[in-house]
Specification:
Blueprint: H1 3-58, E1 80-85, H2 97-110, E2 118-123, E3 126-134, E4 140-147, H3 153-201, H4 211-228, E5 232-239, H5 242-249, H6 251-268, E6 274-279, E7 282-288, H7 292-306, E8 310-312, E9 315-317, E10 321-328, H8 335-352, E11 356-358, H9 361-376
Helix pairs in contact: 1-3, 5-6, 6-7
């Protein structure tokens, strides 16, 4: 799964969770606020209902029509009127047992708080609002009871459904945009990091691995050869008279020459081999699963490919190289020792003009003698 798709799914999931959380808070808040508003409205109606009932009683008329018969289809459209005496006994005949239960619960809630004249209660997962008022004779009390409009689950969605859908669409759009933006930033950072890492491990001119990457691959190859008891060879190549070309024809010609040599080396090597530029006109080759005989054949092939004449800026150039070889584990068990001995062999090949030299102890003796002679010269 791609980074962009992963982030998109995570951001979307997070947005949905946040939307559900805040949606629930909004629903709960709207439910509480709506219930309070309904209670306040019913409490405002209660005194007028009580006044009408008292008028009917004074005229000795039936007061039951004081609330007209509801025309709605839902229970929250019906306002139930309950008249109770001073002892809290119902003196009206309610045709709804549920309302009698609601009234009894209201009495339980208010028995310790006589000053409470309105409120809401929950019974059987339904919310009922109520309001009380005393008749002028102080002997009877009127209680108005109605199922809360907000108690029905679909009410919230009827009132806020469009807002929720719009909020969900906006939230998902923002989450998608954020996921795309963050993924683009992360991909750009990855590209920059990869580019920096690549630059740190490759030569700027030839785009070949540099000394750091060669050392890393050599360490890995040594570990593999230790486990499998295998051999490998390391070569160091130096171009002959490269400094003269640079000095006489210019550095741009020297750079073109290095690019051509690097391309020839790539074509002459196997896919499993590694070619690196150590600096200047010096290259190094890492040849896995190669013994002394095979390494020498590869080295001769490489020098033949380098020796093919080339033309740069109208100048025909004849180039050649000197190559030194060192073998693992015959000449060393670490990359630094092997590189040092391959370098000795390369300088021996340059001195003798042979072209290819495999390291032997005589090369080291010659180098020591040369160093001793250099140290003995007057400054």
């Amino acid at each position: 799964m791609s980074l962009r798709l992963t982030l998109l799914l995570r951001f979307t999931a997070g947005a949905l969770v946040a939307l559900m959380f805040f949606g629930y808070i909004a629903y709960d808040t709207a439910k509480l606020t709506g219930t309070k508003n309904e209670v306040a409205l019913l409490a405002g109606v209660a005194p007028y209902v009580t006044e009408n009932i008292n008028g009917y009683l004074q005229r000795e008329q039936n007061w039951e029509p004081v609330l007209p018969a509801p025309h709605g289809k839902h229970s929250h459209d019906v306002i139930h009127l309950v008249v109770s005496n001073h002892q809290g006994e119902i003196v009206t005949q309610s045709k709804t047992p549920a309302i009698q239960n609601v009234f009894q619960k209201i009495q339980q809630v208010t028995q310790n708080s006589a000053s409470t004249n309105s409120g809401s209660i929950t019974l059987d997962d339904a919310i009922y609002i109520w309001a009380k008022a005393l008749l002028p004779d102080k002997k009877s009390q009127v209680t108005l009871i109605r199922q809360a409009y907000i108690s029905q689950a679909n009410v919230f969605f009827k009132e806020m459904g469009i807002s929720l859908i719009i909020a969900a669409m906006i939230t998902l759009w923002v989450a998608s945009w954020a996921a795309m933006y963050v993924s683009m930033l992360m991909e750009k950072l990855d590209e920059q990091n990869n580019a920096l890492q690549y630059q740190a491990l490759h030569d700027v001119l030839t785009d070949l691995p540099n000394r750091a990457l060669l050392n890393d691959r050599s360490q890995q190859l040594i570990k593999s050869c230790e486990r499998n008891k295998a051999l490998f060879a390391i070569c160091i190549i130096d171009l002959n008279h490269f400094k003269d070309i640079n000095d006489t024809l210019g550095h741009h010609v020297g750079d073109e020459l290095l690019l051509e040599v690097s391309n020839r080396l790539k074509k002459a090597l196997r896919k499993s081999d590694t070619i690196a530029r150590l600096g200047g006109d010096e290259f190094s080759l890492l040849l896995p699963c190669t013994d002394a005989e095979s390494a020498k054949l590869i080295a001769e092939k490489i020098l033949q490919s380098i020796a093919v004449p080339l033309e740069i800026d109208g100048q025909q150039l004849l180039i050649s190289g000197s190559l030194g070889l060192a073998l693992y584990p015959n000449h060393g068990n670490d990359i630094h020792t092997l590189m040092k001995k391959a370098d000795m062999a390369m300088y021996a090949a340059k001195r003798t003009g042979i072209g290819v030299e495999i390291y032997n102890k005589q090369h080291e003796i010659n180098d020591q003698n040369k160093q001793s002679l250099t140290n003995s010269l007057p400054i």
